[in-house]
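Today's session is about reading a structure prediction critically. Students often jump straight to the picture, but the first step is always the sequence itself: look for stretches that repeat, for charged clusters, for runs of hydrophobic residues. Only then move on to the predicted structure, which in these notes is written as discrete structure tokens rather than atom positions. Here is the chain we will use throughout the hour.
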Amino acid sequence: MGRGPYARRCDQCREAKKKCDQAKPSCERCTRLALKCTGANVQRYKFVQSQFEAAQEQFALTLRRNPSPEYMVVAQSLLSIIETPGLPYDITCSGRFFSQFPQRLDSSRTLTSAVSAMVETHRSLHNRQVTRTALTHHNSAVGAVRSILETPSEAYSVQTACAIYLIMICQELLYGPVAPTTQHIRMLLMILHKANVEGWLQEFDTSMIESFLPVSTFEMSLNPDLKPDHGFYDLLTQYYGRPHNDKEIVCDSIEMVAFAQMPRFNSNPKKYHAQISSAYELLKSEPVPFQNDFNRPFTETAPLKNPINITYSDMLLLGAYTTRLAGGALLNRLLRKVDGCTIQLVAEMNFYCDEIVRASQLVFNFGPLAMGLMPQNMSVVLASSEDGASKLNLETAMLGYFNDGRGMIWVEKGRKMRRKMDDPSLWQDIDQRSYHLPARQKMIMPS
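Below is the predicted structure for this chain, in token form.
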């Protein structure tokens, strides 16, 4: 192939547009002017046949470094949900948590599958109809997580923890409280344990830890098959009860630590009576977030078709407050087992029942978002209550908020919780228990 103009000059002569005799080690002009000669070794505008092929190869390599269309589509779908206000399942109430995923999708196919399932679940429920597409994506995400758990080097990672958490959210929205979560939470606990022990906990964004811990702690308080280790309490102290934008973050450390201690308290209420009493008094001393203005966010004329009438900060406060009511109810039940049904304890238990019904009347006007905020806490209070008018009102409220049969499912879950809590054989050896995995997963247990 022909070539264009080119020059053989040192840099000094080329910049001055002078002829160069190309002498070595320094040309005559550079020697005469005492300049540093670079030598006549530069060729410009020379075209070689292989140059086009080299450019083609470089272009192909550049494409491989960019995210694939699959990642881009999933990321854009997630962003469209995050950036759309007023949706009935407003996931922006989870703070920064969901915004962490778009930049992580390219590094984990498992996380991509879980985010895709979350997007389809959100889309189907926004249309008020569970679709086959949402169920298919959920099953694919579960399969992806099962596959990665077979690889010890990849099982413990931030991406795996996030994928498991998203699958739990999808299960709750698609199937309600009947979907099992024990295995998911067990794996979450193991990942957090390993990250804390091996020193890579900083790879988790704070919003992730603040999302994982309440779910795990809540399940622990009612599930004798789960037991926290000592490091778990350190995490609660580290991540909860800190100031955040001049306010406390969603869940305070008092109720979180109380929930985490619940398995031990259930194992022997008499032995831990002093600790239970101390936690109960501390919980009661916490101020009520709404005080005398509890009913402020809604009025009788507020149209239910446009439920976004409650501020974001009020939503966070309601979440923390109803969690506190559930924690107080559990501790109250344990004290009644030791001290008996005193007038004060029964009156306080009735207060928890009545108060969570009031809170639910406020929250359920916020639309389907309340599905992830209220039913679990209401079930816990129901499980802790004694027969009477307040308990009956609570059951009636739970049944009245759902028209698809889920109200009865949550009521039954509360009754099942009560049977578990009242069965001493389930909690006898709780102090000696540790994590137990199916044989297939024992190879990836933390050391």
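Discussion point for the tutorial: The chain has a mean pLDDT of 72.
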